[in-house]
Amino acid sequence: MPQARLSLVRTAGLRSAAPSRASALSLAERCYLELKRRIVANELPPNFKALEPELALMLRMSRTPVREALMRLENEGLIERVARRGMRVLPVAPADMIEIYQILTGLEGAAVELVANRQMSDAELRRLDATITAMEAAMTSENLSAWAKADEQFHRTLLELCGNQRLAQMAFAFHEQVGRARLQTLPYRVKPVR
Description:
3 strands; Arc Repressor Mutant, subunit A; 68% helix; three-stranded antiparallel β-sheet; 9 helices; 2 domains
């Protein structure tokens, strides 16, 4: 195993989850959630490769839950399984992003319409306003990373407030892909404008 990859495997053990939640989840589910989190957070970057035994060591569990998690991640298009029972993290292709943004535009447009047509509580309005304030503060300080996080939270809040859980769940699934692409392209983006 290459030294850099071995180092990553040894130092990247499974983060401890809250005891009540961890005990309620199967090992395969915990493995899936942790690998997905690392892929979305770019901790396992595009083209990262690992064999099942390496992943099992990294996550401190047997190969069976790892194998089950890899099947789910492959079905979601985050990885491809490769010969000798390993995996490779797939990059986010520009064509994928075009399709994802086309879908998100429709879903978020519908969410905005639903939000606009309902009576929101003061607490809900404050939640939404807080995300806008965070985006403005990030723009003032020219902190592109903070702006991207606040922008993501703004979109998530809109979806949470729309009142349509199915619409929100569909959009959240695509937001994970957008988040991966954002982390990879953030250094090359122009600063947002008001």
